[in-house]
Amino acid sequence: MNSRQRRGVILLVLSVLTAFGAFAGVLSVIRDVNSKVGPEVAAYRLKEDIAPYKELTADQFEKTEMPERWRSGTAVTDLRQIRGKIAVTQLRKGSLLQTDMIVKRPELAAGQQEIAIMIDASTGVAGKVTPGSKVNIYATFKAENDKTKDQSKVIVANARVIDVGKLTPFDPEQDDRTRRKQTDGVPITFALDTADAQRVAYAESFATHVRLALVGGGGSTNVPPGDRTYTLDEDK
After folding, report:
1. Which residue of 51, 103, 151, 163 has the fewest C-beta atoms within 10 A of its own C-beta?
2. How far apart are CA 236 and CA 233, in angstroms?
3. Of 12-16, 137-141, 179-183, which gets the smallest average pLDDT?
4. Alpha carbon distance 155, 18 (integer Å)
5. CA nearest 92: which of 46, 56, 60?
6. Whole-angstrom distance between the N-terminal and C-terminal Cα of the chain?
7. Which tens digit of pLDDT belongs to each residue from 45-60?
8. Distances in whole angstroms, Cα of residue 4 to Cα of each of 1, 7, 11, 194
């Protein structure tokens, strides 16, 4: 082997050693990154904005992968966790779903039933009545004749709201009451016993107005029987 061949062999060996060194360096960097980042795990991201107090469905989310160390301990990792749950705040598209963003949808107690009525957006407690709220339901009735008087009645005290629907126009063709011809309403669902459900159904059908009064602090307001009916001449 002449000197030129020996130099070629030496350069080849040096190239191989350099390549192995570079490869080892890359492996070291990868191991270092993996040790800092860790394995990837599943999380769920919102595909669209979700309004508060709306029941969640699996098609509103998409699965994504992220490093385990970067995933919050409150992150939802299984969509079975959203069954029967509602959003507690406005959820934004692209956000990772967390367990503290959702709560269990209010349920019926024994002996209760669901009843939904449309409440005028302008006369309800706009934006403040949410699932779980307690409200007093007021109805006003026009006098039937000259011998009777217009009345306001508390038809149900401490009614529990279990769902709040979307703003919906009243249909004047189905309801000829003047107050509903040029306004919008919100369907509100209550959990009530049979007697209170009948009172609400009657008021929704025959009252001039049905309004809600939000009971503050999640507590209750007892309305004595004598205070459930009001006429204007009581203030004279």
Report:
1. 51
2. 5
3. 179-183
4. 88
5. 46
6. 126
7. 999 998 877 788 899 9
8. 8, 5, 11, 104
More confident residue, 162 or 29: 162
DSSP at 109: P
216 within 8 A of 134, measured Cβ to Cβ = no
Lowest mean pLDDT among 23-32, 186-195, 204-213: 23-32
> Where are the chain's structural domains?
40-104, 113-235
Instruction: Give the residue from 148, 59, 159, 70 showing the smallest Cα distance to 116.
Output: 159
Those residues whose C-beta lies under 8 Å from the C-beta of residue 159, and which sit 6 or more positions away, are: 134, 135, 136, 137, 190, 191, 192, 196, 200
> Read out DSSP for 36-99?
HH--EEEEEEESS-B-TTPBP-GGGEEEEEEEGGGS-TTB---GGGGTTEEESSPBPTTPBPBG
8 Å CB contact between 161 and 226? no
What is the Cα 120 distance to its own chain's centre?
21
pLDDT tens-place string over residues 86-109: 887 888 999 999 888 888 877 778
Helix (H) or strand (E) segment spanning residue 156: strand 151-164
pTM of the entire structure? 0.60
